[in-house]
Write a structure and sequence with these properties.
74% of the residues lie in helices and 1% in strands. A two-stranded antiparallel sheet has the order 1-2. A hairpin with a 2-residue loop joins strand 1 and strand 2. Helix 4 runs antiparallel to helix 9 and helix 7 packs antiparallel against helix 8. The protein is globular.
């Protein structure tokens, strides 16, 4: 068996295990990567220093630490309760929590956002005697949507930024045109209309929800410094090779030092233990798996097939990539899918002479928002259903998709229409 076929078989098997055993995805990815190295499909030096984007990993892991400090500071909980207290109706309060979850998700991992906002939502539901199912689903899918909006919101955004050499502000303005941030906001407005319809029967004014007080505003300030530093990343590092990761790790180390010396509301050991180590090692393993797949030429074959199937049509290529991304990401993890499809989309764009940002932004939108279709499409959805189950609410596929499908369709169609308007002309 050639190394090309071996790399493909290992990748397909790992992908199947990602679906069948989602709680073991990091072990699967790392085992698959080690298997490629052991079989000689990849050299260990090449895998370690060429295939793994350590700049992206540094950006991801450093952001995890800063986000955890931000959550532990209770500032987001105070913000949530403040919004609920000032809402004129239950529906307005429910929509406000969804919007806040989205805003926080621009800077914090989606699962953490759900774990943070869910207690406020459940407290609101208990006080007003309403079913919390649709509210928590709205919070989960809103966080998934807005994680796409910034470079530090979600791993797929970081991966795309690394591949396209994008800085933090490139998500807002890219090559002199509005960036993907504004496409996501168009999608957010459209999907908010859907949620407003879903919550239409809730009119009682909320009251008496505030309980939290902020422990410290230092972590919030550090997130501000992160955004500020990343704003200048491309000045020091135009090739997106080292600065973003190094700066984020340095800032997170300072945050840990501050926490250890000054904070009295948790241990450093517990903080480090609570980090998302599963996703960290999953990303490392997938980088190696996709690296082996790329070296074997399968990306070139897939891009050639897609280019021939669209027969040079840019609108058809754009629609195909978006729809394919939405459907696949509704059922399986979007990280390995995106790592495979980014170079494919690049090659398709080159072959049919399409604007690269058009296909790349469409791919990112589809891959990230497609996870809102089903309860298994994103980790935040799975966590949300677990929280509801503990409260005695079992959510079926049909019930989740009753909110997720119209939300996703509205968000994807409007966001992609904006991307086409800006980049497709």
């Amino acid at each position: 068996m050639t190394h090309a076929w071996f790399s493909l078989i290992v990748f397909v098997l790992c992908y199947a295990l990602f679906v069948a055993l989602p709680t073991r995805r990091s072990w699967t990815a790392c085992a698959g990567g080690l298997l490629l190295i052991a079989a000689g499909a990849l050299g260990w030096r090449e895998a370690l220093f060429s295939k793994i984007s350590w700049n992206v990993m540094g950006l991801f892991f450093g952001t995890l630490i800063l986000a955890e400090l931000f959550l532990m500071s209770r500032v987001p909980a105070v913000m949530a309760e403040w919004l609920v207290d000032r809402s004129r109706s239950t529906r307005a309060a429910m929509l406000a929590l969804c919007v806040l979850a989205g805003v926080i998700s621009m800077f914090v991992e989606n699962v953490a956002v759900v774990l943070l906002v869910a207690p406020v939502a459940l407290s609101l539901a208990d006080k007003l005697h309403i079913n919390p199912v649709k509210l928590l689903i709205g919070i989960a899918i809103s966080s998934n949507l807005q994680g796409t909006a910034t470079m530090i919101g979600d791993p797929p955004s970081m991966i795309l930024a690394g591949y396209m050499r994008m800085g933090f502000w490139d998500f807002f303005a890219y090559q002199g045109k509005p960036g993907i941030f504004f496409a996501v906001q168009i999608g957010a407005v459209s999907s908010l209309v859907v949620l407003a319809f879903v919550y239409r029967h809730h009119g009682t004014a909320p009251s008496g929800i505030r309980q939290e007080t902020a422990r410290s505003w230092v972590p919030a300030s550090m997130l501000g410094l992160l955004v500020l530093g990343l704003s200048f990343a491309t000045v020091f590092d135009p090739g997106f090779a080292w600065f973003a990761g190094l700066y984020t790790l340095t800032l997170s180390a300072a945050g840990l030092a501050w926490f250890r010396l000054h904070a009295r509301w948790g241990s450093t050991r517990q903080l480090i233990k609570s980090l998302d180590w599963d996703t960290t090692f999953f990303l490392i393993g997938v980088f190696v798996l996709v690296g082996g797949l790329s070296d074997s030429g399968w990306m070139d074959r897939l891009s050639g097939l897609m280019a021939r199937s669209v027969d040079g049509s840019i609108p058809l290529a754009f629609a195909m990539i978006v729809i394919f991304a939405v459907i696949i990401s509704g059922f399986v993890d979007n990280v390995p899918f995106l790592l495979v499809m980014i170079p494919v989309a690049q090659k398709v764009a080159d072959q049919i002479h399409a604007p690269v940002p058009l296909l790349m932004f469409g791919l990112l939108i589809g891959a990230c928002l497609g996870g809102n279709l089903t309860p298994i499409g994103a980790s935040a959805n799975v966590v949300t259903l677990g929280i509801l189950k503990k409260r005695g609410h079992t959510v079926s596929f049909r019930e989740f998709m009753g909110v997720g499908i119209p939300f996703t369709v509205a968000a994807v169609l409007s966001a992609c229409a904006f991307v086409w308007w800006i980049w497709g002309g």
